[in-house]
Amino acid sequence: MRNYLKEILETKTFVQTLITSSGTIVNGILGLIFYFVLARSLGPVSFGVFSASVAVLTLLGDIANVGSDTGTVRFVGKYINSDQAKALKFLKLSLEVRMISWLVFLVAGWFLVPYLVTAFFAKPGLILPIRLAFIGVGSYLLFSFSTYALQSLQKYWVWNGVNIGTNLMRLLVTFVLIYFGILNQTSALTLYVIVPALGFLVGLTFLPKFLGTKNEFAVAREFFHYNVWVAIFTLIAAFGGRIDTLLSTRFLSLYDLGIYSSAVQLASVVPSIVFAIGTVVAPKLAGFDSDLKAKNYLKKVQLFTLFLAVIGVLFAIPLARFVIPFFYGKNYFDAIYPFSVLIVAQAIFLISIPAHTSVFYYFENPKLFVFIALGNIILTISAGWYLITNFGFMGAAYTVLIGNMFNFVVPAFWVVRKFTNQK
Questions:
Q1: Shortest CA distance to 200 belongs to which of 152, 158, 162?
Q2: How many whole angstroms separate alpha carbon 414 and alpha carbon 402?
Q3: How many other C-beta atoms lie within 10 A of the C-beta of residue 107?
Q4: Which of 3, 327, 344, 379 has the greatest number of CB atoms lying within 10 Å of its CB?
Q5: Structural domain tally of the chain?
Q6: What digits encode the pLDDT tens for the residues 56-104?
């Protein structure tokens, strides 16, 4: 075991993961400080409105993405060294797809928001915040383009800089708004919308000159043939991953929604680590040409993620009793309880990395996750409706736990069988 751990620590993947993880930790700390400051300044009710709006923004952004993030990593990572001209076509096509998708969502959504908010959330005060969320989808898509393009090129130091710089700018402007006494849920959302667009512009300067590339639609068939299943999966998973927040917005008071949202934000440190590790693992798996290489690599990644998950849970739950009242304020003390459940759920998400990334990038079978996501959304809607209406924000946390367990077990079982059958 000692030699095995030494081998893991000496791999290039571990070094690159250390780079992305260290950046993600810094980025996560900045993000947490932003939410701590915001929650304290706004109070649970306004913070609940802000959190619901951000949940809608990211939901719409993931849907409007139509699988472009995964497609960018897959094809740019695949061709950048062997056929750079073709890789640049994928970059330009990905950007164009995002912008067209956003314009469609913005025009349609602007007029539909009053009806959707009133019918589903039954909270008319959310109309303006949700409209801002539709505008923010554009900056969300632009920023994700920059980060995933940098990931596909394996420019991890730049990737770190863009993410950290964007979060730092958002935090500093928040302090300025507080200083002048103009921080409220509207100004906070406006800030959340604008800053990622600036991050996109910075990231763009570190990418190859692709905007002048011509005939990018020549690769559209290859791009969309792969992306169609990713897009369908993303559509379903985007809803499934936010069922807890959407149902909580519908059934909980804005005060309780603010309490639950604070727990969600604190637990979001783990998905950030997942993203950092996945940033390294995905292009590596896309380049493997044998099962033996892939299996050996995945074993190391599984051991690494399992270690992080166990250590994280053991430290996070006791620490939360100090962190939540100290940083969020005494009004958020009850967030300790849903957080304890959510951190276990996110630990399960962390150990799912090898299974999830191998399905997408080694076996190239995003179709599988369409069916997994369908099963997950049916499970979480059924469980969430019952649990949230009966147990409040604790029910929302239990819903996330159930969904993450399902999302780990099913693809892990499929990957093990796939490798076994290919012997």
A1: 162
A2: 19
A3: 11
A4: 344
A5: 1
A6: 998 899 888 877 887 887 788 777 778 888 888 988 888 998 999 999 9
